[in-house]
Amino acid sequence: MKSPLLTKDPYNIIITGVGGQGNVMASRVLANMLVRRGCKVTIGETFGMSQRGGSVMSHLRVSATTVWSPQIPKRGADLIVAIEPVEALRVLADYGNPAVKVLVNMRPIYPVGVITGESDYPEPEKIRRAVTALSAAACFLDATEEAINLGNPILGNIIMIGAVEGLGVLPVNREVFETVIREGMPASRIEANLRAFDIGAAAVAGNC
Amino acid sequence: MSIDNEHKEGAEVLFMGNEAIARGALEAGVRVAAGYPGTPSSEIIETLSRSAKEGSLYVEWSTNEKVAMEVAAAASFAGLRSMCVMKQNGVNVASDFLLHLTGSGTRGGMILVTCDDPGALSSVNEGESRHFARLMEIPLLEPADFQEAKEMTRWAFTLSEEIRNIVMVRSVTRMSHASGNVVLGPLPPAGGTAEFLCDGPISDPEQGPIISAPVAEKHRLQQDKVRKAVSLFEKSLFNTYTGPKKPELLVITSSACRLYTREAVSMLAAEDRVGILKLGTTWPIPPALVKRYLTATEKILIVEEVLPFLEDQVKILAAEQVRETGIKTFFGKNDGTLPTTGELNPDLVAEAIGRILGIEPKTIPAAYGEKLRMLAGLIPRREQTFCPGCPHRASYWAIREALQRDGRGGFVCGDIGCYAMACLFPAAGFYTCKTLHAMGSGIGLASGFGKLGSFGLEQPVIAVCGDSTFYHAAIPALINAIHQDANVIFIALDNSGTAMTGFQSHPGIDINAMGNASPMVDIAALCKAMGAPVVVEDPFALKETRETLNSLMEGGGGLKVLILKQSCALSPEKKGKKRYLMQVDELLCKGDACGCNRLCTRIFRCPGLLWDRNKGKAQIDEVICAGCGVCAGICPAEAIRCEEAPVS
Ligand code: SF4
Ligand code: SF4
Hints:
heterodimer; A: 208 residues; alpha/beta; 6-stranded mixed beta sheet; 41% helix; globular; B: 648 residues; Rossmann fold; 7-stranded mixed beta sheet; 6-stranded parallel beta sheet; 21 helices; 35% helix; binds iron/sulfur cluster
């Protein structure tokens, strides 16, 4: 296999969201796509307690040559994919830097503290402003709404994977996405996933 | 995904560390694998169970780690390759048997895989299993990447057969739950016959009975085995060195810490100043090899998680060899260069190396730092909580109500499982749960509290325990509470599965790890047979559950059992299916004027319920709500409506 072309080595991606949003699945699909394109990928993840309403973060290190630490150093993200908006801010606070690109699904999942009134959830406008200020490029999607239109909110994570492809920063494409999901998914679900992928890709292409 | 059929030799695939360990075992021809679920170890047995087949691989979820080790040992005694798998504190449970097993020795290659959790990312302890290797005098291997996790596991079986003793392989969360590329090796043919040869003399390790006595003789033999392992470690390819011939600083490290160290050195651009000696064989460390590298430098930093384990060994070696290697300066845990609690990461290691070598870490532009300030106060905390539709939220609600009504300051002793969140994030259990320790300790502590009446303790004592935990460790304590006539209400939170770790089977379920039908052991029947009065309720019936609990509290002393039976919201039969369609009737919801103090969203706190600040009314989030219907029983104004969902 030919060495993949990367804009930076290792290229550091953080996929973040809330337990139950399909974060882990998204990171696995993207990583498998990259492995098929000849990359060495290291994913750092923690499951367990984080599944129950907590913040979830997957660190992906993409390299042409070798395995890297499963934890990205602070301020070291090249791309942040947030399936939930305040999680984008949470990750930027630790891993943001002037060169980072950020994709955000704008559908909030309210923390219990917000539901109870102990803390406030920031206005969407404030979130956009902060993400834009703290990144080199930012794109905001309504992935959950689009996914509900497709019949299942969980497809929001696949829309975000499509968005990553649309950015054009990684050596992945629709074809390799299809190969990867065909391996791990019943045939009946492929169609909806491909549509989700296309929606994400189209939303970002030329916009970010 | 099954890791044997689809993946052919030579293929390069993305594997989780735990999958790599499982594949290594398959490539070694493991025949029996047993374990008890526990994060971060569970995926090893789960992955193997998908490859299990009659006559070629037997896999089981045992009732606890000690039993798992015994089951695996039996296979080894009968000449088969076997393994047992557990999380760090599982080794504590298995350790009594382990002590005797290491004395008696093994036959077929047998390995113990432990997955530690530095930083307690999904544990209530960060205990380390490495120290057991020294305590029990058995070889310890620690993989430092995914490929190595596979190779090392495979080789561990060979080593075990060579020395005729169990070999320990230790992983950590950041290996087990991280993923990376792995190139696959060949799988051996299936098959293997089991026979326990035991008619020979006691001194015959091949044909005699297998016992740890006579101790003087067996212990001496065991130490010979360790010496043999050390001689193999001296030449092991799992120990590697990268860096200059005479480094300014030598880092000795192992496991995930090796990846952090490499990253740190690259962050500091110090590749030509720092050498990294990565040890894969970490007990005992190979003295000749380590001595060689000690000689090459003056300054040594040991990078490991959590306590100084390598550090102690290296220092002892250096002291013994000081004439030859010269005087050294050591950095590590003891001098405070690195913390002795929590997990490490590249930043912590870079900071440590930077301090020793006088390298300033790179910083971000000041303007960016300025901008980061705009995040202040913008990011709400995200506390963990029970899933929407979780039966535990309902159970704790009933317990809270009952305790309030009772009014004597009763409390709950917690145990290990999802329901432990009630102790960790008290709001999740309505502040009812007050102790949390080891598996089964809830009822053990309650048994003790329940005998303090004669010293004036008048508070009602409740212990909660999940179904899997019940079988694992609660039974002896429960028997004790019954026999001692302790005043305790024992509540079994039976959600029909090991929910916390992903629905592994347990003795209360009629299907085993291999997917075959298997006899069930019924909690209620067992408790009745032990002589305890037993009541079963559905925790979703809030009122009935509360009333039952109050009448149990009012009744006389002794141990009483209440079983709260309702499946986990994530259980395969429930997940994604709503039983009820929920709606808040805006006309009935009185909002802040209700006087209920927003019972639904402020106290009950199911994430499926939202508070619409503009309207000042509760609302259902239909994406999150699991449709369990429980909140309808919470609202005093009956504003939360539930309607049977159409069956799809
Ligand atoms: S996984 Fe099941 S038992 Fe655990 S919090 Fe969620 S619903 Fe409750
Ligand atoms: S019905 Fe009520 S309690 Fe049950 S999941 Fe929905 S909002 Fe939560």
